[in-house]
Amino acid sequence: MTDQTQFIKVPHVVIVGGGFGGLSAARALRKAPVSATLVDRRNHHLFQPLLYQVATAALSPADITAPIRGILRKQRATEVRMAEVQGFDLPARRVHLTSGEALAYDYLIVATGATHAYFGHPEWEPVAPGLKTVEDATEIRRRFLLAFEAAEGERDPEKRAALLTFVVVGAGPTGVELAGSMAEIARHSMIRDFRNINPGSARVVLVEGGPRVLSAYDEKLSAYAARALTRIGVEVRTGAIVTGIDAEGVSIGEERIPARNVVWAAGVTASPLGKALGVPTDRVGRVMIRPDLSIPGHPEVFVIGDLASLEGPGGRPLPGVAQVANQQGVHAANNIRRLIRGEPQTSFRYVDKGSMATIGRRAAVMEAGRVKMKGWFAWVAWLVIHVFFLVGFRNRILVMTQWAWNYLTWQRGARLITGETGAELAPRGKPIGTPEGHSEPMSEGRPASRDAALAAAQGQTAPSDGEGAGWMGGDRSQAGNRE
Ligand SMILES: Cc1cc2nc3c(=O)[nH]c(=O)nc-3n(C[C@H](O)[C@H](O)[C@H](O)COP(=O)(O)OP(=O)(O)OC[C@H]3O[C@@H](n4cnc5c(N)ncnc54)[C@H](O)[C@@H]3O)c2cc1C
């Protein structure tokens, strides 16, 4: 094990986590009389609020990430280490890495965030990925886009319908944003791209156990959000508690929704490192911190962001949002300066600047104190604020350019399916148009005239609308219901 104590001349601060909290702490220590080491198991900072846009092919991962080393390039007293932390020795003031190395500190800030929680059903995780990392987002994107490809080659109408059914579990901001975006891609971006299916007939179901979507928002805003979602084609199911998820679908009590694509946006739990600190945690594993953000018995150790549990106004825990993490990062850094100067630490006061969520490409809800906004103006405010808070000038330019392109063309620039796909693509039957191939075309709800043109191009005869049970398949009514 390497002991770094011998190299430390000024107090040394170790920051674990390069997310919103860790990064804002590191930046706030820029001019402090300390040296610092920021440790993250990833080499990049991720702007999670736009992760759903990567999952739905609007943006690429590089648009919403920035290398931590690059962000802190000009802070010469700050070292960046890409490493995984596995535990702490608080009495000896050491941070233990999985590599076996130990980092010594005088002050420690832990900001390792949160991860998905499946409410005691870990078996749901492989079939219902959550959205937290770049890998999660590209996996969700992969599954979403692959479902259309597999449906294009699927001859069985029931299997095709299951492939084109997307269930999002949890109607908080992430679930609402994902579902809205999925419905719009299917109905607009991909509508002309397939020959055997109608992507617009895809079913996007947003399932929420509670009585309303966006339950943290004002009731009127959440009712507006539900209406706006329905308008863009999302089937909103509130008061529906998911009782089972497997590779073939989702169960809500007795009801079964056949669906090959499920996304989990329902629950989070704190990073396991919270428990490794050996101090009390709440029921989701968040560390119960003191008002100055330190942990009981260790004024030199701070826990911030999603990993921390601290009561806000009204006795409710502060929400797990970027603003809290950012403000706590700055506050922890300021308290470290005070400790160095021998001054007492101060309590953290959260300044709530409001919250917002988008619903598709033209609507959003926004709540800031007594100010409540919805619709197009809220959506424009959402765009401006998110671009403003993105880390890095390059990212801001890239994201604005992509958004302008997406808005004007309805197209999604990042429709990339990566990785091996062979096993996931449904085996094709006989090619359409082969004499003995029961050439039962596979379109769903597509206008007959377009089908006729396509069929002619493929050397087939398209049945008329009236005789189109086989042509339109059993999904036609479903398509009608959706639209
Ligand atoms: C999809 C999504 C959308 C969101 N949208 C919004 C929004 O619109 N507005 C908003 O305010 N908030 C939003 N949030 C919440 C916001 O992103 C979080 O509150 C914020 O990221 C918390 O910051 P943090 O620093 O505590 O943790 P994070 O930003 O999650 O950072 C944790 C860091 O710790 C690192 N780490 C974890 N474990 C280890 C380890 N063992 N060793 C080393 N490094 C480790 C991780 O790699 C990561 O870089 C969203 C979150 C998600 C997932």
From TrEMBL:
Membrane-crossing residue ranges in chain numbering: 376-393
EC number(s) per entry: 1.6.5.9
Keyword Transit peptide included in the entry's annotation: yes
Annotated catalysed reactions: a quinone + NADH + H(+) = a quinol + NAD(+)
A Pfam family it matches: Pyr_redox_2
Biased composition (Low complexity): 450-464
Chain residue ranges for the region called Disordered: 421-483
Domain External alternative NADH-ubiquinone oxidoreductase-like C-terminal, residue spans: 353-408
Residue ranges of domain FAD/NAD(P)-binding in the record: 12-329
GO molecular function, one term: NADH dehydrogenase (quinone) (non-electrogenic) activity
Enzyme class, spelled out: oxidoreductase
Keyword match NAD: yes
Comp. bias regions, Basic and acidic residues: 437-449
Alphabetic keyword roster: FAD, Flavoprotein, Membrane, NAD, Oxidoreductase, Transit peptide, Transmembrane, Transmembrane helix
Family named by the database record: Belongs to the NADH dehydrogenase family.
Protein name: NADH:ubiquinone reductase (non-electrogenic)
